[in-house]
Amino acid sequence: MLTARSHPQQGNSNHQNYLFHLDNMSVEYGGIRALKNVQLTIYPGEILFVTGPSGAGKTSLLNVLGGHLEPSSGKAILPHQRSSKHFCSTVFQDLRLMQKKTCEENLWLAFDSSIYNSKTDFFREMEDLAKLLNVADHLNRKVEDCNGGFKQKIAMIRALLARPTALLADEPTSSLDKDNSYRLFEVLNHLNHKKGLTIVWATHNKELIKQFPGKIAHLDNGKLVYSGHACFI
Length: 233
Ligand SMILES: Nc1ncnc2c1ncn2[C@@H]1O[C@H](COP(=O)(O)OP(=O)(O)OP(=O)(O)O)[C@@H](O)[C@H]1O
Ligand SMILES: [Mg+2]
Known about the structure:
It is built from 7 helices and 9 strands. By secondary structure, it is of the alpha/beta class. It has one domain (20-232): P-loop containing nucleotide triphosphate hydrolases (Rossmann fold), CATH 3.40.50. It is globular.
């Protein structure tokens, strides 16, 4: 059974054992400083909510953590540099699904014969996740015919099918109602407990943060102004 508060999420915070480390890290786009001297360490098994108003730098931060954006200055040490076994999956804010293809075709893009014993195993995992998120009956729909919330679930399943060490998710419930947002996060919380999945989740959803154990990194105008336990928000 999936329960939101079944075990407090701990992470493994032995300071040598980190997965991500940002040291005095800044990002600039032209003249705009989107992230300013950010200092942040994320440990295996942690759940970190990245919060902050629009334009605060959440997407830029996730893009650096995912290796999709180079810092302009400072250092970013990422999981694959710590161990070749580590892998990050990103659910981008704009989802990056192939609109003309069906949902199932998009999910098959995550198939990797080096991590699955067979296509049957992959298909079973796809079906299990699709059932958990209540999309199993509609995987033959073209993405362009699906609503925003459905697309977010497909993007999340695709990211999870890559069996990542860390999942980076950029406002992945912005088009989902409360029940569906909770359901999605319950599934992730379960993977966090069962498999030690590290989760970095950019969100405006304070209700969700209150329901699930985790830490917070709060950005304001590119600065990391709070980093710590979520109970203080
Ligand atoms: N490619 C870009 N070129 C120029 N400026 C950018 C670019 N991407 C982001 N910015 C600027 O950097 C700042 C941080 O943007 P970012 O998208 O990281 O914020 P955000 O917290 O994710 O915002 P939102 O909540 O709206 O998604 C903003 O001022 C934004 O306008
Ligand atoms: Mg953003």
